[in-house]
Amino acid sequence: MSRQREQNNYLRRYRSISYAKWGYLFIAPFFIVYILCSLIPQFLTIYNSFFESYLDGLTQVGPNFVGFKNYVTLFTPDNNGVIGIFKYTSNTLVIWLLGAIPQFVIAMILALFFTSYRLNIRGQTFFKSVIYMPNLIMASAFAMLFFTLFSNVGPVNQMLIQLGILEKPFDFFRTRESVRLLIALMNFLMWFGNTTILFMSGIMGIDHELFESATIDGANSTQVFFRITLPLLMPIVVYVVITAMIGGLQMFDVPQVLTNRLGTPDRTAMTLVMYLNSYLTPSKNYGMSGAISVYLFAITALLSIIVYRSMIRQRSSR
Amino acid sequence: MRSYPYTRSDYESQRARTRLYICRAVVYAVLVFLTVLCLFSFYLLFVNSTRSNAQLQAGFRLTPQENFWTNLRNAWNDVSISIPIGLRNSFVIAILTGILTTYFSALTAFGIHAYDFKGRKFAYIFILAVMMIPPQVGAVGFVQIVYKLKLTNNYLPLILPSIAAPVVFFYMKQYMEAILPLEIVEAARCDGSNEFSTFNRIVLPIMRPALAVQLIFAFVGSWNNYFIPALLLDKLERKTVPIMIAQLRSADYSKFDMGKVYMFILLAILPVVIVYVFLSKFIVRGVQAGAIKG
Predict the structure, then answer these.
(1) Under a CB-based contact definition with an 8 Å cutoff, are residues B152 and B146 in contact?
(2) Could you identify which of A138, B48, B97, B183 might form a hypothetical disulfide with B262, taking C-beta atoms 3.0 to 4.6 angstroms apart as the criterion?
(3) Which residue from A minimizes the CA distance to B156?
(4) Do the chains contact at A30 and B60, CB–CB below 8 Å?
(5) Neighboring chain B residues of A191 at a CB cutoff of 8 Å
(6) Global pTM?
(7) Whether the Cβ atoms of residue B280 and residue A134 lie closer than 8 Å to each other
(8) Residues B55 and B147 in one domain
(9) Which of B71, B100, B119 is the endpoint of a domain?
(10) Which residues in chain B are closer than 8 Å to A153, comparing Cβ atoms?
(11) Torsion sign across C-alpha atoms B155, A133, A203, A99
């Protein structure tokens, strides 16, 4: 009997000093899976970029070590003197900015509306639910929907003709500006609700007394916004802008489906990830797609640092 | 109505009130405009899914017609795009992804939150650091490994990686810091509960709201996921809905029954919309709570 108790005590003590093992045990699955499914693939991607390896029809070429040849190919101008990767980078950024600038501005205005005590907006839950909804819609289906709505025989052209605004259908998918604007519009619709909610919770986190004392001191609402709200909201604004930009550089589903993976017209709507994807299917060109991935990673890091620095500096100079 | 003459301050306050009314009217007008902008394309989708191909060619229309069930039957029985199979595949992948990602993110967060061990801080900082790496960066290597292991058209490579979701982990960790006192864990320990069952029986039920929010987001994210599945699934009976939708685009759509096409799109987004109609309040609150980290 007493021996058993001793054993129990021993067991208990043994446990109390070895709780750490549970910590290791609980975080182990995460790390094992992360290493297998993310870390090793990331290194493999970089490793691949130094090899020539692709399918030519059904024949596998390589893998042969080629040094920086893939990178040289990536930055070599084509017959028209255009460096593809730069063109696709600027496409991606232009399309992203076309949607992101209105996204940030409108989200900020809406966040101010919703948090204003003076305005006291009713039906907030409804409005927030509606503007957030497009964020959850399947991007490829949303793009397919816009394609059918704006096609030559689609309802938008039919409506414009029935109203007598157009004589014959306007081909939205053969004009650079309209394709880009449609992609930007979809991105805007999908993300402005999300941004509004993030800005709102930021504004609600600001001590309300600050607004009151500023108003008592005679500040008008413009002054309150630029002198109090915006500076205090800056950390969230920086966070939102950088995460939106990282997401924007990954833009894929919408332009891929809308332009049927071609980035028409004349590849002016081709984004970086679409370009990456074009090397993966069907040719399995791991060398070139690896090099593009490394470039994508580098440009993402670089732009994030630039945006972060410039926004922080702006804040301290004020 | 006041019978005595207006004083100066009365006059001013009335002017301020008028201004407030105008402000409010403008604000509501903006909100209504944005609501219409958000919903209009989906409304047209619904209307067009109730019209036959001939009716669709005839012109634009804002009210539904009578061919909803015909279109549904045609879309459901289509052979080249078998949407029922796609829906089933997407559902299986999305639900398993959702369960794995919430369970293991909570487990990882609990491991770091409740135990003191060597390398704990490093593990935490590591996860925060990799949160910033865009997932597309490892895609090439990942696809290569899957092809090497001959796991294409298998769901394992689409489901398994969700065990390691840094963003979900971070949400769980924040939530635990806010609501999970370690005394509960100690109390369970004193009552002789094994650590693993403490997590399953005591911690998980407390975490229920956070688990539900993240389950929904993981489900929706997986349901909508297009990039990686499109690279790994090429057999008809294994394809997911987004791949089928993209296929719809690359087919020669001029020969298509457009009523059917609208119905396909409607079927692709309907499950998420239905979930959202019931849970929107809860979801929006979840997004808001996730943002407060600052």
Answers:
(1) yes
(2) B48
(3) A37
(4) no
(5) none
(6) 0.88
(7) no
(8) no
(9) B71
(10) 57, 258
(11) positive
A59, β-bridge pairs:
A56
Query: Is residue B288 situated within a structural domain?
Result: no
- What is the rounded CA–CA span in Å between residue A313 and residue A306? 11
Measure B211 CA to nearest chain A CA, in Å.
17
Domain-located, residue B273: no
Determine the residue type at A289.
S
Helices (H), A35-175: 40-48, 69-74, 84-115, 124-132, 139-150, 155-162
CA separation for the pair A143, A59 (Å, rounded): 35
Measure the CA–CA gap between B266 and B72, rounded to whole angstroms.
10
Q: What are the residues whose beta carbons fall under 8 Å from the beta carbon of A80, sequence distance 6 or more?
A: none
| Chain A contact present for B270, CB below 8 A | no
Residue B217 CA to residue A208 CA, distance in Å, equals 32
In this structure, are B222 and B174 located in the same domain? yes
Examine residue B15 and state whether it is found in any structural domain, yes or no.
yes
- CA B256 from centre of chain: 30
Looking at the structure, do residues B159 and B97 belong to the same domain, yes or no? Answer: yes
pLDDT for the residue B294: 37
Low-confidence ranges of chain B (pLDDT < 50): 1-2, 293-294
Contact: B137, A293; criterion CB under 8 Å: yes
Please indicate whether, in this complex, the C-beta atoms of B163 and A280 are within 8 angstroms of each other. no
Cβ–Cβ gap B34/A162 under 8 Å: no
In sign, the C-alpha dihedral spanning A150, A154, A155, A156 is positive
On whether any CB of chain A is under 8 Å from the CB of B248, the answer is: yes
Pairing of strands A51-56, A59-65: antiparallel
d(CA A236, CA B239): 39
Rounded distance, CA A275 to CA A288, Å? 10
**Chain B positions in Cβ-Cβ contact with residue A147 (cut-off 8 Å):** 249
Contact predicate A70/A49, CB 8 Å: yes
Q: Which residues 6+ apart lie within 8 Å of A302 measured at CB?
A: none
Q: What is the pLDDT, as a whole number, of residue B7?
A: 60
Residues B231, B105 share a domain: yes
Q: Is residue B287 part of a domain?
A: no
Residues of chain A with pLDDT under 50: 1, 14-16, 318
- State the smallest CA–CA distance between residue B275 and chain A in angstroms: 10
* Last-in-domain residue among B38, B71, B104: B71
* Residue among A202, A201, A221 at smallest CA distance from A211: A221
Q: Which is nearest to B105 in space by CA: B161, B25, B36, B46?
A: B161
Verify that B229 and B89 share a domain, yes or no.
yes
Question: Across the A/B interface, how many CB contacts are shorter than 8 Å?
Answer: 285
Q: What is the pLDDT of residue B86?
A: 93
Query: Hey, which residues does A64 pair with through a beta bridge?
Result: A52
Both B61 and B128 in one domain: the answer is no
- Tell whether B60 and B189 lie within a shared domain: no
The total number of structural domains in chain B stands at 2
What is the structure's pLDDT at B40?
92
Domains of chain A as residue ranges with CATH? 2-70 (no CATH), 76-317 (1.10.3720.10)
- B147 interface with A at CB cutoff 8 Å: yes
Domain that holds residue B126: 79-251
What is the CATH number for B240?
1.10.3720.10
Nearest C-alpha of chain B: how many angstroms from A112? 11
B130 and B241 in a common domain: yes
Tell me the chain B residues in contact with residue A21 when contact means C-beta distances shorter than 8 Å: 117
